[in-house]
Write a structure and sequence with these properties.
ABC transporter involved in vitamin B12 uptake, BtuC; globular; mainly alpha; 326 residues
């Protein structure tokens, strides 16, 4: 199958999934009604307009962009670390961003500050991991990065536990706990646009660097023999993936397994073509989380946190692929 045909198929799947997600909910809408409303917004009634443009569309866009960001980050990390067990949280971005959000909730700050704190501490956590790895003397820089990330993850996870321990158990603690389980219930159009811009900018840069990213999986001497400075490109990759992960966590909370399972599935489908795997991971991750979010809204009147659903679905899938490869 050619790349053009694949892209057309993914485009069709995205359009069909968006229409399906727009039609499903406590106030069901027929796809034909949705298409008419999108073509002629002035002719739809006020209730339909609020449901489509104020509630469902921002959430659908956020789900797609968050899934795309996590999957893209996971695909890049699994490639440069040559490890299918690596996820976007490997350098501490997820735990750092989660701590920032938990701290903002503990301080009683609004949604804007929760998003800002989360984004800032996610970036800070990765910078600490990079700084720690730079102090080492081993040649295997990738190994040092992973070990430093594990250290930072443990540290910020402990800080999250501390915040939960001192939080008011009646009001603040439930809010923190629910946020950490991952949800898109508070999605707004400006958050979705912000997420989309981050995915577009970082995704474009990573795609333009795709051959150099693939080369980063080699040893230091091999990389330099190709005329590539591994420090420069590794830094750019880390910045882009950190921005993607921190932005995703800042608007959706912690949603695990997407960045681990989706790139792994795509790699089994496209084993030896990193360029093709990169953009395929973006679409697959976006569609996957959009489907999960639609299911979470539809199965019960009370929404399931996305982190729970992605774990329930992702863990058995990953176990199956591990057993298949062993």
């Amino acid at each position: 199958m050619t790349s053009v045909k694949e892209k057309l198929i993914f485009l069709f799947l995205v359009i069909a999934s968006v229409l399906l997600a727009l039609s499903i909910g406590r106030y069901p809408l027929h796809p034909a009604e949705i298409i008419r409303a999108l073509i002629n917004p002035g002719e739809m009634d006020q209730t339909t307009g609020i449901i489509l443009f104020n509630l469902r569309l921002p959430r659908i866009l956020a789900a797609f962009f968050v899934g795309a960001a996590l999957s893209l980050s996971g695909a890049v990390f699994q490639t440069i670390f040559k490890n299918p067990m690596v996820s976007p949280s490997v350098l501490g971005a997820s735990s750092g961003a989660a701590f920032g959000a938990a701290l903002a909730i503990l301080l009683g700050l609004g949604q804007v500050f929760i998003q800002f704190f989360s984004f800032l501490t996610g970036l800070g956590a990765v910078m600490i991991a990079v700084l720690l790895s730079s102090l080492g003397k081993r040649k295997s820089r990738n190994l040092l990065l992973v070990l430093s990330g594990m250290l930072v993850n443990t540290f910020f996870t402990s800080l999250i536990s501390l915040v939960k321990y001192v939080a008011d158990p009646q009001n603040t603690l439930p809010t923190i706990t629910y946020w950490l389980m991952g949800s898109l219930a508070e999605s707004e159009m400006h958050k979705s646009i912000f997420m989309g811009v981050v995915v577009l900018l970082c995704g474009t840069l990573l795609y333009l660097m795709r051959w150099r990213i693939a080369a980063l999986s080699l040893g230091e001497d091999e990389i330099r023999s190709l005329g590539i400075d591994p420090r420069v490109y590794r830094f750019i990759v880390i910045v882009c993936t950190t921005l993607l992960t921190s932005a995703a966590v800042s608007i959706s909370g912690v949603i695990g397994w997407v960045g681990l399972v989706v790139p792994h599935i795509v790699r089994l489908w496209i084993p030896n073509n990193f360029s093709r795997m990169l953009w395929t991971s973006v679409f697959t991750g976006g569609l996957y989380l959009l489907l999960i979010d639609t299911v979470s809204r539809a199965i019960t009147p009370l929404e399931f946190p996305l982190g729970i659903l992605t774990s329930i679905i992702g863990a058995p899938f990953f176990a199956y692929f591990l057993l298949k490869e062993s």
